[in-house]
Amino acid sequence: MIIGLEVCKGCELCISACPQESLGLSTHINLNGYKYAELIKDNCTGCINCAIICPESAITVYRQPKPVRKATSAEVTG
Amino acid sequence: MDEKLKKTETRLMKGNEALAEAAIRAGMDAYFGYPITPQSEILEYFEAEIPKRKGVVLQAESEVAAINMIYGAAGAGARVMTTSSSPGISLMQEGLSYIAAAQLPCLVVNVVRGGPGLGTIQPSQGDYFQAVKGGGHGDYHLIVLAPSSVQEMADFVFLGFRLAEKYRMPAMILSDGALGQMMEKVELPEEGSLPHTIPDWATMGKPASRERNIITSLHMQSEKMEEINLELQENYKKLRSEVRFEEFQTSDADVMLIAFGLSARVCQKAVELAREKGIKVGLLRPITLYPFPSVRIKELAAQVDFFLDVEMNAGQMVEDVALAVNGIKPVHFKGRMGGMIPSPEDVLEEIESIIEKQSVGVF
Amino acid sequence: MESELLIEDLECVYKKPSTITDTPLHYCPGCGHSIVHKLIMEVVEEMGIQETTIGVAPVGCSVFAYNYMDVDMQEAAHGRASAVATGIKRVRPDKFVYSYQGDGDLAAIGTAETIHTVNRGENILMFFINNAIYGMTGGQMAPTTLSGQVTSTSPYGRDVKQIGYPLKITEMIAMLPGAYYVTRQSINNVNSCRKLKKAIRIGFENQKLNKGTSFIEVVSNCPSGWKQTPIETMTWIEENMFPMYPLGDIKVSK
């Protein structure tokens, strides 16, 4: 997941919403003077909880797509 | 100055009903109103007629709700009208300020009754200040039309819609209880003879081809708010070309009567009575109270001995007359209040008294 | 062997809706308004109705809602949003029309309009953002302020003997036959947000049926007015607001 750092207002709702405790508040501030939220662990499952609750719509979430089964010649024939 | 309205039918009608019928013929899209004497017939007429013709009619829960429905519908590009009487018009003032600030066209009719307060249901002209000076908060104006006959109650609906849409501002027909109730012959304009297109600034749903339309009057930065105000003032300057008035035997008059609406009818008779007695009286009847015929009044000041402003109030339009005359000649005032209507004889008596006593004008 | 993860290989499962503008939101950090705006606009995007939706903004913190919601909008006078929405819907019945109001707008100055709009069964969607306080004007008491709650005009706590009880306007209007769908939701956690979004979707879909008013109350927060952090406000909602304003569907008509 990616957080738009400059848009974040440090409300911490995403931190509280994350079931994996992946997020924390940075000690740095952005241009607006807010401490921004950031990933502190590498265990994001892409559940989008943080993105749903983020008031600034600052979070974009990506997931690895599920592997697609490649058809073998045996399966193609009808 | 006015396109000749094509008339298709002649009927004997009450002022209020002539106005309502004219609105349907003018292609009004929606009417939102609330009952109040002496104009509830207008809402009643629409409730009976509109289901048979076309358009929307809705009895709102109050005048406050009605004017805000007008705002919404006007913002969505519809041709809309509301009517009320003095206390109800007071309730609409906030809404009118918003409509003027957002530059939305609409037509409002005030069938004026005696006041202040709950007052009386009898006719009055006591809402001139409210109508002409803005009425609600802020620097804005309405176009104000003052009919003095049932025919004008009908014609001014067409004129009101046309001017409101041309200048993107609210227009008001300032009528009164007597005009609303009296019955006269009226030639009704042709239905559909005032076509209407939905303006491109209206909130119709945002297609991909444009930015969203926002109807608002909130501008927090002073620079922007001043810009908006300057725009409004520029518009009101352009409006001056729409001034309308009627003159009756003014070319050789020594005494000039100034009156609008019902008072003007009385004064017209007074002119005749005075002339029979050899006093050369004329009448200037403003039709648009805003924009006010200041230029013409100033011109007439050169020729007359004095002005006599006759109104059914404590002295309102007389201030604008005095401003226009600017001290060149005396301006006198004759008023009746509380629903009392001056008679032509009262007016003549006043003229004679002024001449005899050589009285100083009020201005 | 670990392959590098490239964005192009990943599926984007959530991003900011296209129907929310890029204008930075002026709301306080953690304000419920921001969340609700986003959820409404997500539904508008998913239903593909941006081109046929007209919104009405109130007076209050969300007076600038039209800066963030990318649909045609009108700004209403204080309390009058449902009357303005009525005017719009009556002349443009084929459009999706919604009004958005706070607790002062809908339940104080606008009470008459609120009741009568629902009583007429106007085919619109009404949003009621209830945070028990007047945020924009500096934190004064609202009709929905709780008993004993401290605000700038109830510095000793709301005294119900003097000023009356919190007004449960949603329950009141649900009794009217013109109310088709009345529900109370919240934004206190992600689950509530998901349920709110579902309710919003129902509300918009209902407009196709023309069977009456859809009314969604959102129990929301005010970090500035309540003088709490955003996370604290969510706990406060759960502990104090929900007992008075319980969540759930209050009316679902057939």
Layout of strands and helices, then pairs:
The complex is a heterotrimer of chains A (78), B (363) and C (254).
Chain A lengths: L1 E2 L9 H5 L5 E7 L5 E5 L9 H5 L5 E5 L9 H4 L2
Antiparallel strand pairs in A: 1-4, 2-3
Chain B lengths: L6 E8 H11 L4 E4 L6 H10 L6 E4 L3 H13 L4 E5 L1 H6 L1 H9 L4 E7 L15 H5 L10 E3 L4 H18 L2 E7 H5 L1 E7 L24 E2 L6 H18 L5 E4 L6 E4 L2 H16 L4 E6 L1 E3 L3 H8 L4 E6 L5 H9 L5 E5 L8 H14 L6
Parallel strand pairs in B: 2-3, 2-4, 4-5, 5-7, 6-7, 11-12, 11-14, 14-15
Antiparallel strand pairs in B: 1-8, 6-13, 10-12
Chain C lengths: L10 E4 L17 H16 L5 E5 L14 E4 L5 H11 L4 E7 H7 L1 H9 L5 E6 L29 H4 L5 H6 L4 E8 L3 H17 L6 E7 L3 H4 L3 H15 L3 E5 L2
Helix pairs in contact in C: 1-7, 3-4
Number of domains of chain A: 1
Task: Quote the distance from N terminus to C terminus of chain B.
Answer: 33 Å
Count every beta strand of chain B, where a strand is a DSSP E run of 2 or more residues.
15
Q: Shape of chain B, please?
A: globular
What's the number of domains of chain B?
Answer: 2
Description:
The complex is a heterotrimer of chains A (78), B (363) and C (254). Chain A is α+β, with helices and mostly antiparallel strands. Chain A contains 3 helices and 4 strands, in the order βαββαβα. A two-stranded antiparallel ribbon of chain A has the order 1-4. In chain A, a hairpin with a 5-residue loop joins strand 2 and strand 3. The model of chain A is unreliable at 73-78 (pLDDT under 50). With 363 residues, chain B is an alpha/beta fold. Chain B has a 7-stranded mixed β-sheet with strand order 3-2-4-5-7-6-13, with helices on both faces. Chain B has a 5-stranded mixed β-sheet with strand order 10-12-11-14-15, sandwiched between helices. With 254 residues, chain C is α/β, with parallel strands linked by helices. Chain C has 9 helices and 8 strands. Chain C has helices spanning 32-47, 81-91, 103-109, 111-119, 160-163, 169-174, 190-206, 223-226, 230-244; strands at 11-14, 53-57, 72-75, 96-102, 125-130, 179-186, 213-219, 248-252. Chain C is globular, with a radius of gyration of 18 Å. In chain C, 57% of the residues are buried. Chains in contact: A-C, B-C. At the B-C interface, helix 3, helix 5 and strand 9 of B face strand 2, strand 3, helix 2 and helix 4 of C.
